[in-house]
Amino acid sequence: MRPFRFLIAAIFLMSAVSTALGSAYNARPKLVVIIVIDQFRGDYLERYRDQFSDGGFRLFLDRGAYFSNCNYDYANTRTAPGHATLLTGTYTSGHGIVANEWWDPEKKKLVTSVEDDATKLVGPAAGIGASPHNLMTDTLGDELKLATNAKARVFAVSLKDRAAVLPAGFGGDGAYWIDPKSGAWITSTYYRSELPDWVRNFNESHRAEKYWNREWKDSDGKLLGSTAPRNGADGHPASFYEVVGSTPFANDYQLEFAKELVLYEKLGTGAATDLLVVSLSANDILGHQVGPDSPQMHSMALELDRSLAEFFNFLGHQIGMANVWLALSADHGVSPLPEFARTLRLPAANLDARSLHDQINASLSKKLGEKADYVVDLDYPMAWLNEKAFAGHKEADAENDAGEAMLQVGFAGYFTKARLAHGDVPPTEMGLRYAHSYSPEGGWYVIGIPKPFQVGITKGTDHATPFSYDTHVPLAFYGLAFQTGIYRNHAEPIDLVATLASLLGINAPAQATGRVLTEALTPQRHSAGEPPAQHSTERGAAQPGGTP
Q: So what's the pLDDT on residue 258?
């Protein structure tokens, strides 16, 4: 019996090693799942670690490779740029997505990062559709499709269109998001002319309705919120996105849809590795209202831990966790609620962006001798300029004038688009963050440098700064290819796709600049006499700081 047991053990070991050695061409692993949590700060995993149950976040913390010191190296920490960065492996200067929306001087209006006049919405909604047409480079999913002759299948899911479309890339098989009013799942004609039967059946079975009229209580039974119908600020009935979207029930709803997608699209059953990106939006919808230190956000993290554990358990039963690689990150963090930060005597403030906008225009009108809306929109801290109002002025001069006006209303500094286009930034870490924030999109603009702990809304809190509370996000991996440990050396979100692409044996996206996190990879076996592979020490690579 002993030789038989040794044989079984050897077969198991060989199978594990084979699975650890990734190959997208041979479906090793069968499925890669990237979880992106909208507005999930990097300190949350440490803050609530002892309260997480087995199988959710602890899958990454106890049995995965967890990088606790991961920061975005740019200043425009918004949802669209964050999702583009994570899946292209480069910053805005490489992928072009500078904000959630920007001023289009030809259309003379603000446009979103993904809206596309050449497409229409598909499903129980009407309007202009969405596509990744503004991306200046490809994504991990695109490279996966290219490498496998389109055998790999690529999907992305989110409550928000930009958080589904940008991760799905150009060649994605599908991107799904919700109609904000009803919660029904929709897509765009960019992907297909009609919804698949399984999505239509999902909507027609009224899955969204069961999340209305529910109470949200914490572990002690204290009521934290409700999804009872209510009116919004405009006096009309608030949407599914507003009411359900700001509770943990929204995460359950998204993951319920993601499970159906895995089943009906038969992910993990093909000849090549498949990719699923799930961007969970509820944290962001709620976080703007209550801040990161509230009881609601505490409970949200614990409820999401439970939801993820159930989703990972589903993947285990459906595909087998030995055949799945998981990655976890976030698109940005968030500032403390200013009113809370002030109790600690921090110089925090809620600012009125509308009032600042008017003051900037008044200053410019006085300087230029004619009253006009020189700044058409102030999406704090970014100012979008009206080129026609600056008639006779060069772009660089107009942006400098606007920047100086921004200094007068309290900004700490500014960078103009013209300066960033020429790489005219100081040789400092902060200067590099603004250089990485440049995009040729959006007409003329100025990126203001805010003061720490100041946000451009009169109530609640926000992100979109180069400060650690906005740039610090989790980065973690789970799967046989990864070496368990806590890694406290420097890492960036752009390293996620560089690492996965290398492990899968495919090219990284065309403009990717991240490094392969070799310190967190399972050592590979080598033939006798062949020296072991050398691990990179670029950007401070180090051995794990310890295992849980």
A: 98
CATH no. for 349-455: 3.30.1360.150
**Phi-psi category of 195—alpha, beta or left, where left has phi over 0 and alpha has psi -120 to 50?**
beta
- pLDDT-based confidence at 525, cuts 50/70/90? low
- Give bridge partners of residue 274 from the DSSP assignment: 31
pLDDT in tens, 146-171: 999 999 999 999 999 999 999 999 99
DSSP string, 240-295: HHHHTTTSHHHHHHHHHHHHHHHHHTTTT-SSS-EEEEEEE-HHHHHHHHH-TTSH
Q: How far apart are CA 160 and CA 281, in angstroms?
A: 7
DSSP output for 224-240: EEE----B-TTSSBPPH
Let me know: does 185 contact 123? Beta carbons within 8 Å.
yes
Q: Which residues pair with 475 in a beta bridge?
A: 67
How far is Cα 299 from Cα 292, in angstroms, rounded to an integer?
A: 11
Residues 363, 369: Cα–Cα separation, whole Å: 10
| Structure token digits, residue 25 | 């061409």
Q: What is residue 75's predicted lDDT score, i.e. its pLDDT? A: 98
Q: Looking at the predicted structure, is the pLDDT value of residue 11 above 80?
A: no
Terminal Cα-to-Cα distance of the chain (whole angstroms): 36
Identify the burial level of 409 via C-beta atoms within 10 angstroms of its C-beta, where 0-12 means exposed, 13-18 middle and 19 or more buried: middle
User: Quick check: 7 and 1 in contact, CB under 8 A?
Assistant: no
Average pLDDT over residues 512-524: 93
Q: Per the structure block, which two tokens stand in for 497?
A: 């796709």
- How far is residue 203's CA from residue 187's CA, in Å, rounded to a whole number? 13
pLDDT of residue 522: 86
Average pLDDT, the chain: 93
What are the boundaries of each domain within the chain?
31-334+468-489, 349-455
The reply to whether 349-455 shares the fold of 31-334+468-489 is no
On whether the CB atoms of residues 191 and 202 are closer than 8 A, the answer is no
Residue 163 Cα distances to 122, 406, 438, angstroms:
17, 31, 20
Whether 185 and 202 have beta carbons less than 8 Å apart is answered as yes
Q: Look at residue 128 and give its three-state secondary structure.
A: strand
Does the pLDDT of residue 6 top 70, yes or no? no
Q: Is 339 exposed, middle or buried (0-12, 13-18, 19+ CB in 10 A)?
A: middle
Nearest-angstrom CA–CA distance, 397 and 389: 13
| DSSP reduced 3-state for 296 | helix
Whole-model pTM: value is 0.93
For residue 524, pLDDT beyond 70: no
| Torsion, Cα of 351, 355, 357, 359 (10° steps) | -110
**pLDDT for the residue 396:** 97
CA atoms within 13 A on the CB side of 47: 15
Task: Write the CATH number of the domain with boundaries 31-334+468-489.
Answer: 3.40.720.10
